[in-house]
Design brief:
- With 347 residues, the chain is an alpha+beta fold.
- Helix content is 41%, strand content 31%.
- It is built from twelve helices and 14 strands.
- The strands form three sheets. The protein has a five-stranded mixed beta barrel with strand order 2-3-4-6-5. It has a four-stranded antiparallel β-sheet with strand order 7-8-9-10, sandwiched between helices.
- The radius of gyration is 34 Å and the shape is elongated.
């Protein structure tokens, strides 16, 4: 018995947080994969493109989002429509001796200025698809050219300002880096609790009753030497109630417990009822709450009976009378205590 329960609480706290390492690690790996698969870096910092570079060269080099200067743009007379509104206006210009197609936002070109002398703009280089081919077909008819002829003369890529969304990009990266920071912080916190279990919330919650490290050591010693009652994941020693389940860990001084009660949960799939589990709720002084979910009725009843015998002041069973007694004993918490109590319930 002594060997099996040596540092049992600390080992279970470490195991609890080790199981939680996989989620932030997998999420960080996913963010890394997305960064390399999609041009997220280019969206964040569009590449500077000089006038000697062509859009095709930049596209082949992997630069999808660029910032460049354009001169002597002339309106083609054609627009791009999306969802019943004008998305942009098609212009053409000569760039290093090559004719290029430029799609500008309505606000940039003032809804179709005939000519624009100079423009510094950020946009996305897009491989021409159906809309682009329709534009080339219309231009070929205007110029009395063949489809093949104009396709050879114009590049397969065009520049689109409306397809670069600065606000959406900012929101995307706030979410991207915000969730990355949260995952890193959560990962570091889990590693910290694995390295120093006494810093975990299950131990630090004991600060309202005494020194957390001393109480953890005392609970460990009592559990290792002579546990007075043990179920699969709940234990009672001389002075402590201890829970070490996959859903969380808890240490509570028995003399600080005010109220215990249970409720049942019926688990079913469609119309088939396949099991019933029981959850024990413990309310202690200083607005400390512990929930012990998914246990059997016999284990819950045995723990409740033993706790009631160990501390005759504990109220047993859920009733409005007991709730009012506990509320009177605890008093109304300060706002910060209410917040801590809510966090404890969630944990």
């Amino acid at each position: 018995m002594q060997e099996n329960y040596e540092h049992y609480i600390s080992r279970n706290i470490k195991a609890f947080y080790k199981r939680r390492l996989s989620s932030p690690i997998l999420y960080l790996l996913l963010l890394a994969v997305l960064w390399f698969i999609f041009p997220l870096g280019g969206m964040l910092r569009p590449a500077a493109m000089n006038s000697a570079e062509t859009f095709e060269d930049s596209y082949e080099a992997g630069d999808r989002y660029v910032r460049t200067s354009l001169q002597n743009l002339k309106f083609t007379g054609y627009t791009s429509e999306a969802h019943g509104r004008t998305k942009g206006y098609f212009y053409y210009t000569l760039r290093d001796g090559q004719c290029c197609i430029i799609l500008l936002s309505p606000s940039t070109c003032e809804e179709g200025l005939p000519t624009i002398d100079h423009l510094r703009v950020t946009g996305r280089i897009i491989k021409g698809k159906e809309t682009y081919r329709e534009l080339l077909s219309s231009l070929a008819q205007d110029l009395d050219w063949t489809q093949e002829g104009i396709t050879r003369q114009l590049p397969s890529c065009y520049f689109s300002e409306p397809d670069y969304h600065p606000m959406t990009t900012k929101i995307l990266f706030v979410i991207y880096f915000g969730t990355m920071a949260y995952s890193l912080l959560y990962l570091l916190v889990c590693v910290l609790y694995i390295r120093f279990p006494v810093l975990s919330p299950v131990c630090q919650n004991l600060v309202v009753f005494g020194h957390p490290s001393e109480m953890l050591a005392e609970a460990e010693e009592e559990l290792a030497t002579l546990p007075q009652l043990a179920t699969e994941d709940m234990f009672i020693t001389e002075h402590y109630f201890i829970m070490t389940s996959p859903y969380g860990n808890a240490i509570l001084p028995i003399q600080e417990i005010l109220w215990i009660y249970k409720h049942s949960t019926l688990h079913k799939f469609l119309w088939y009822h396949f099991s019933i589990s029981y959850t024990m709720h413990i309310t202690a002084n200083k607005h400390v709450y512990v929930t012990c979910p998914k246990n059997t009725k016999s284990d819950i009843d045995g723990i409740m009976d033993y706790l009631a015998e160990a501390n005759h002041n504990i109220l047993v069973g859920f009733s409005e009378e007991n709730r009012l007694k506990v509320q009177a004993a605890q008093g109304k918490p300060f706002h910060i205590e209410k917040f801590y109590a809510l966090l404890r319930r969630r944990v």
